[in-house]
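note to self — DONT lose this again. spent like an hour looking for the file last time. sequence + predicted structure for the chain T wanted, 358 res
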Amino acid sequence: MGQPLIDLRNISKSFDGTMVLDDLNLSVKENTFVTLLGPSGCGKTTTLRIIGGFESPDRGEVIFDGQNITSLPPNKRQLNTVFQKYALFTHMSIAENIAFGLKIKNKSRSYIQDKIKYALKLVNLDGFENRSVSSLSGGQQQRIAIARAIVNEPRVLLLDEPLGALDLKLRQDMQYELIRLKNELGITFIYVTHDQEEALTMSDTIVVMNQGYIQQMGSPENIYNEPENAFVADFIGESNIVPGIMLRDELVQIFGAKFNCVDKGFGLNKPVDVVIRPEDIDLVAPENGTLTGKVTHLIFKGVHYEMEVTSPDGFEWLVHSTDLFPVGQDVGIHVDPFDIQIMNKPASEDEEAVGINE
């Protein structure tokens, strides 16, 4: 295992007395797609700006390829940034926009022309050199902003919610484009978003943040299937989070009913939080369920039905199923052991799960 390309060490940052990042540590390996994911105000954009050199940390170091670049200005760093507001120059042609950074570096005319053609081909906008920015759609403008960044051959591309202004279909198209670009270019992407689907679709590694802390870091599959706390479980996809009692290894009690699970090491009769995804609940005949309930709400979502099932204790279970159970029907609730995720209850309401370097 080589050293990480980017290493943030003990980074803290506050604005007007409010702590935004608190002793954050994060390592990013070369040629990976890393997404910083979290709600507004969690510190993800501040983290990106510190990597880019647009903000200075109050404490801590930014290490790039083994070198301390904490005080290096943005234009001296081997990275480029694409913002949500594309910041294209409307008085320039597409070619002039793409060439802007290369001209500052005094590259030759022939080099610049080759790079413009290469970049436009890469973002599927061949022949757009002489078009004006105002003639482009939002998705095309986004591609030009990315083309302008990649012609400078950065080792890292920073993207701050770059798809936020696009409609759903365009956003989905651009997600696949970004994955393709990352694979073709072989550079490291660090991407900021609050959109869970975006993060799950594109990332090699997701860093879930909240209140200036890393809550969990791992692959999309790991983050989704094995959330480490209730915040992650609730933020990544939809979840049923219920109180339970871990009776012993591999046996948890939920609302008085005993469920087999695969988790161990929690002790005997320990209060825990239990996470069950809506798609992992099987609705069966009442007599075949571990718990029972009544369907109280039903929405058709296209690929599945979304139902609420209210159990006798009043808890409303969210269920996704391709099978239709009409409102008013009595049902049983069955969950396979592998689909039950057990988590320790936090010791206090504001206990943080401070994250993990890989």
